[in-house]
Design goal:
The complex is a heterodimer of chains A (about 500) and B (about 525).
Chain A (H helix, E strand, L loop, with lengths): L6 H6 L1 H19 L6 H17 L7 E3 L4 E3 L1 H28 L3 H20 L3 H19 L6 H32 L4 H8 L6 H17 L8 H8 L2 H26 L4 H23 L5 H22 L2 H28 L15 H4 L1 H15 L5 H15 L3 H27 L12 H19 L2 H12 L3 H8 L1
Helix pairs in contact in A: 2-3, 2-5, 3-4, 3-5, 4-5, 4-11, 4-14, 4-19, 4-20, 5-6, 5-11, 6-7, 6-11, 7-9, 7-10, 8-11, 9-12, 10-11, 10-13, 11-13, 11-14, 12-13, 12-18, 13-14, 13-17, 13-18, 14-16, 14-17, 14-19, 14-20, 16-18, 16-19, 17-18, 17-19
Chain B lengths: L4 H17 L8 H25 L8 E9 L4 E7 L1 H24 L4 H20 L3 H10 L1 H11 L4 H34 L6 H5 L5 H18 L8 H8 L2 H26 L1 H27 L4 H22 L2 H32 L10 H4 L1 H15 L5 H16 L1 H26 L16 H19 L1 H40 L1
Helix pairs in contact in B: 1-2, 1-4, 2-3, 2-4, 3-4, 3-11, 3-14, 3-19, 3-20, 4-5, 4-6, 4-11, 5-7, 6-7, 7-9, 7-10, 9-11, 9-12, 10-13, 11-12, 11-13, 11-14, 11-20, 12-13, 12-18, 12-20, 13-14, 13-17, 13-18, 14-16, 14-17, 14-19, 14-20, 16-18, 16-19, 17-18, 17-19, 19-20
Classes of the chains: A mainly alpha (about 500), B mainly alpha (about 525).
Chain lengths: ~500, ~525
């Protein structure tokens, strides 16, 4: 046993261990199973299922593991469920896509699980080192996944862009973290917070905050660090794009909350201002740029940028309600965004790429349910009741008003009115235009399941959000936010 | 336990829509689909009548209240109830929906099932708007209504339907998002004052809101409602939406949707923010009077009958807003009454224009002429509805306009004078249109073979004419339930404004004393 680590620590990282085991199992199964077998997807799902099951005993745990490297609390738990759920949906939507693209599924599923593992560590990490290791695990997996369709030039371009810019931004982030360490003498965020309390405002710490904000801004694709997003989203394999826009984004927000709310509450005046500016710019530019897109994946990339802006409102509010709103929004966003990508994958057929606006022409005649589902996701992304997206926005803007940021809320709602234009434009194509070309649109069982889950989630959370709201409030309170707000006031 | 009649009003159309989902969508089933939708909407209408018969007209309180916790963490509940103001709007909605469905019998053949589903969903959302007493619930219905209407215009409309549908959606959405923030702000204020969030309208009525907050919130609410009404200069979406919408869409749009704006003013904007309301009332009245004149003048030069009726709506709803802004018994009672009138008579006009357009596939006035010789029955009904729209004594329009003008005169004779000239203008453009369409020689050969009203069309128009006569002759039947609720709302505004003005004076006095 290495010094400082006890057996009980292994018990607390059981879910991560199970997932690692599952990932390795996938690699082995890939060799054993006959080529082209679909069983591999089910092995992957089994691994995810086992990991979810292993989360059960930690329902109300609230401990620090391995001398403060990881925290096992409900905040982390909430995110882990989001990641695993998103990973499961991603696997479901990948089966047919990989078949059409002729890519080998073994490494693909392995990398998906690795990325998920990284995300789980990011959400649990309360030490800069663990957080960074989680981030690297996730990021490296995504670099490879983005270029997974090797013969496709766009996919290669996406991978190279993502890798270069990603590595650059990680450097910036790491530089900021090293200054934080140098000033406090610790990498543990909670110790760091107490070390900074009561100190005078140090310009070097401001620099560190700026660097960390920039590094994280890249990860969540906040303007002006968003340039990579549209190209990578368009070029990467569609299921990877879906997972990237949901999982990676949620994990980065988890990390962001950990670093700023747990580690730097004393600097909250500075980072709140920065995030406020970022939120405003991100929402506005994201939405304005989305207005003119004709490629759906690009449009969803800009819309995902805009959504990062909305979610940042919760950080600016910084209250437990604000954090709860972020958790709620991230989960709801996972459902609607993954659902929308599932439809794009359904549109991908042997003869049609299916991600251009015109490919959706008259979809409601060719596949009424797919059109209806897409309508639902678009309305939800646009924030129209009674869909889940409305509930999420409602909670976010409510948190902003609650914390006194009326200006942010006003800009937020105006933006969501603008965004309706491009979401509705897709609906115009699906419902009001004559049929498009190409072979018939069909679903496979796994795509059907993914779609059904997304549709049910989007409707159910729109009509009966109470459980989610209570759960998110409870999770947000474990983040030590209470202490933060006390320090601010 | 009492039968939850209000929830049933909202749920029944949805149940009908779900039932329709299970009917196979092919040519064979078209009559079945239409009949199911019609029966459901008639049942809803019967329920609204039942509601009216059980309603205690002497009471100003909300009745048939149902309350269930929904999202307790934020004080959101499912809270519904009716008073005299919303009661008759519910009846109007129930009355117009079956007629709208019937009117589409011949004009809508494409995707009939989806059409019926959207009409039923729209009815459910409209009912929801009128019964909600929780602001959050209200907002949900308010926004949810856009989607079916968007599709009704976008799929079954005329040539520029997509443009009109998107414009309709974006305009109304842009107006309503700020209202959402104002609603959130109210819940926040309630939390600050009492320690608990609440979206309960009845509790928010009692909330003392500081003046600057009142102004902003009032403006946010008023903008949403002004776009919906539509009040000049926010009216530009209306002609497009009306002209491109199918007849059923126009009937519901003019008959019910526009009333939501004025209903919102009476139910939410004025009583919640009394001080701001009394401050802004003159401006609203000014816009209303401009709308009356402008709508009438623009209507006069329209070559297209549907557009003419659409602009006449701008003018007529200007009267309603004027009545509300006058803030006295006659004015507001007249406004509520006029909402019903406008629903019936403009709904009727759209139905008749739709019938002409079904026969000739054009709505241009110049294409018609001398119809009186060809289709005397249709023209007779047309005449009655036209006269009702103008406000001929003995028909419904007269009562509402008279009350509004009385109210406006008591408040500002000048506004009343301008508005009254609007009445004259409205007689001009309506009668001129009527004359050009129905009198004179039959110049166009295509009109010679036009057929008169069919049994189905009689079934649509007889109820309209009956309502016009009934509301003209027995206005008290309708005014009686409206009265107490209007009185209560006015007291609320007067007291609220009075108390706050007093409070401001006191604080000024206090600060002067301390100097």
């Amino acid at each position: 046993m290495p010094p400082g680590i006890s057996t009980s620590d292994f018990y607390y990282i059981l879910p991560e261990l199970v997932l690692t085991g599952g990932a390795l199992l996938v690699l082995i199964a890939d060799v054993l199973l006959p080529r082209g077998s679909k069983a591999l997807a089910w092995v992957t799902l089994l691994a995810i299922g086992a990991t979810i099951a292993s989360l059960v005993p930690f329902g109300s745990t609230h401990v620090e593991v391995a001398h403060g490297l990881l925290a096992v609390d409900q905040f982390a738990l909430f995110f882990k469920i989001v990641f695993l759920g998103a990973a499961a949906l991603t696997v479901l939507m990948s089966v047919r896509y990989l078949e059409i693209e002729g890519a080998s599924p073994g490494e693909y599923y392995f990398l998906i699980l690795c990325a998920t593992l990284g995300m789980m560590i990011m959400a649990g990490g309360i030490d800069l080192l663990t957080i960074f290791i989680g981030l690297e695990t996730m990021a490296v997996s995504f670099y490879i996944l983005a270029g997974f369709i090797k013969p496709n030039q766009r996919s290669n371009e996406a991978a190279v862009k993502y890798f270069l810019l990603g590595a650059f931004s990680l450097g910036i982030l790491l530089y900021g973290m090293s200054i934080m360490y140098g000033l406090s003498g610790t990498t543990n965020l909670r110790t760091m917070a107490t070390a900074f309390v009561g100190q005078e405002r140090d310009p070097r710490l401001v620099l560190a905050v700026i660097l960390v904000v920039a590094g994280l801004g890249f990860k969540i694709a906040a303007v002006p660090f968003h340039m990579w997003a549209p190209d990578v989203y368009e070029g990467a394999p569609t299921p990877v794009t879906a997972f990237l826009s949901v999982g990676s984004k949620a994990a980065s927000f988890a990390m962001l909350l950990r670093i700023f709310l747990e580690g730097l509450p004393s600097m909250s005046a500075d980072w709140r201002l920065m995030f406020e500016v970022l939120a405003i710019v991100t929402m506005t530019i994201g939405n304005l740029a989305a207005l003119t897109q004709t490629n759906i994946k690009r449009m969803l990339a800009y819309s995902s940028i805009a959504h990062a802006g909305y979610i940042l409102i919760g950080v600016v509010a910084g209250t437990p309600r604000g954090v709860a709103a972020m958790l709620i929004y991230l989960l709801i966003y996972a459902f609607m965004q993954l659902g929308a990508f599932t439809i794009i994958i359904i549109m991908r057929r042997q003869d049609v790429v299916g991600d251009e606006l015109k490919d959706f022409s008259g979809l409601h005649i060719r596949h009424p349910f797919a059109a209806f589902a897409m309508l639902l996701f678009m309305l939800s992304l646009g924030g129209i009741p009674p869909t889940a997206g409305f509930m999420g926005k409602f909670w976010l803007f409510g948190a902003a008003i609650d914390a006194g940021y009326v200006r942010l809320a006003v800009i937020g709602v105006l933006n969501s009115a603008i965004s309706l234009y491009y979401y509705i434009r897709l609906v115009v194509f699906m419902y009001l235009k004559p049929q498009g070309a190409g072979s018939p649109v069909t679903t496979s069982p796994s795509l059907g399941i993914a779609l059904a889950v997304a549709v049910i989630g989007t409707i159910f959370l729109g009509v009966y959000p109470r459980l989610l709201f209570d759960l998110a409030e409870m999770s947000a309170r474990t983040l030590g936010v209470a202490a933060v707000t006390a320090a601010i006031r | 336990m009492m039968f939850p009649i209000l929830s049933s009003l909202v749920a029944l159309p949805i149940a009908g829509a779900i039932l329709l989902l299970f009917v196979r969508d092919d040519e064979h089933n078209e009559p079945l689909v239409r009949n199911i939708a019609l029966v459901v909407s008639l049942l809803v209408f019967a329920q609204t009548l039942l509601l009216w018969s059980r309603f205690n007209a002497g009471s100003a309180e909300f009745q048939f209240v149902e309350r269930h916790a929904w999202i307790p963490a934020f004080g959101i509940s499912y809270l519904v109830g009716v008073d005299g103001i919303s009661l008759l709007l519910l009846v109007l909605t129930g009355f117009l929906t079956p007629l709208a469905l019937l009117s589409s019998w011949e004009s809508v053949h494409k995707k009939t099932k989806a059409f019926c589903i959207f009409v039923l969903l729209l009815e459910s959302a409209m009912m929801g708007v009128f019964v909600s007493l929780d602001l959050f619930l209200f907002y949900i219905f308010w926004d949810a209504m856009l989607i079916p209407m968007y599709f009704l215009i976008g799929i079954w409309g005329y040539d520029r339907r997509v443009y009109a549908a998107v414009k309709f959606m974006l305009y109304t959405m842009a107006g309503s998002v700020l209202m959402l923030l104002a609603i959130l702000a109210l819940a926040y204020l309630h939390n600050a004052a009492t320690g608990a969030y609440s979206f309960d309208l009845l509790r928010l009525y009692d909330l003392r809101i500081p003046p600057p907050m009142q102004f902003w919130c009032f403006l946010a609410f008023a903008l949403a409602f002004a776009i919906k009404v539509p009040l000049f200069p926010f009216h530009t979406w209306l002609p497009d939406a009306h002209v491109e919408a199918p007849t059923a869409g126009s009937v519901i749009l003019a008959g019910v949707l526009l009333k939501m704006g004025t209903y919102g003013l009476v139910r939410f904007a004025f009583p919640l923010f009394p001080l701001a309301a009394s401050y802004f009332a003159p401006y609203l009245a000014l816009l209303a009077v401009i709308g009356i004149m402008y709508g009438a003048l623009v209507a006069m030069v329209q070559p297209d009958m549907k557009k003419l009726v659409a602009y006449s709506s701008v003018s007529h709803l200007g009267f309603v807003v004027l009545g509300i802004a006058a803030m006295n018994t006659q004015g507001v009672q007249g406004a509520v009454y006029q909402m019903l009138n406008h629903g019936v008579s403009t709904g009727g006009l759209f139905l008749i224009v739709g019938m002409l357009s079904d026969r000739r596939h054009t709505r241009l006035i110049s294409e018609y002429g001398g119809l009186k010789r060809v289709v005397p029955h249709l023209v007779a009904v047309f005449l009655i509805v036209t006269l009702s729209s103008i406000g001929l004594p003995g028909l419904n329009g007269f009562v509402g306009e008279l009350l509004i003008l009385l109210g406006a005169f008591r408040w500002s004779p000048r506004a009343a004078a301008f508005a009254a000239s609007g009445v004259i203008l409205s007689a001009t453009y309506m009668l001129w249109m009527f004359q050009r369409v129905n009198y004179g020689p039959v110049n166009n050969d295509k009109n010679k073979t036009m057929r008169d009203l069919s049994a189905r069309e009689w079934a649509i128009l007889v109820p309209i004419v009956a309502m016009i006569a009934l509301m003209g002759v027995l206005p008290n039947m309708f005014l009686r339930p409206i009265g107490p609720s209007v009185e209560r709302m006015l007291n609320q505004v007067r007291q609220g404004a009075g108390v706050q003005i007093q409070a401001i004076k006191n604080s000024e006095f206090g600060s002067r004393n301390s100097d």
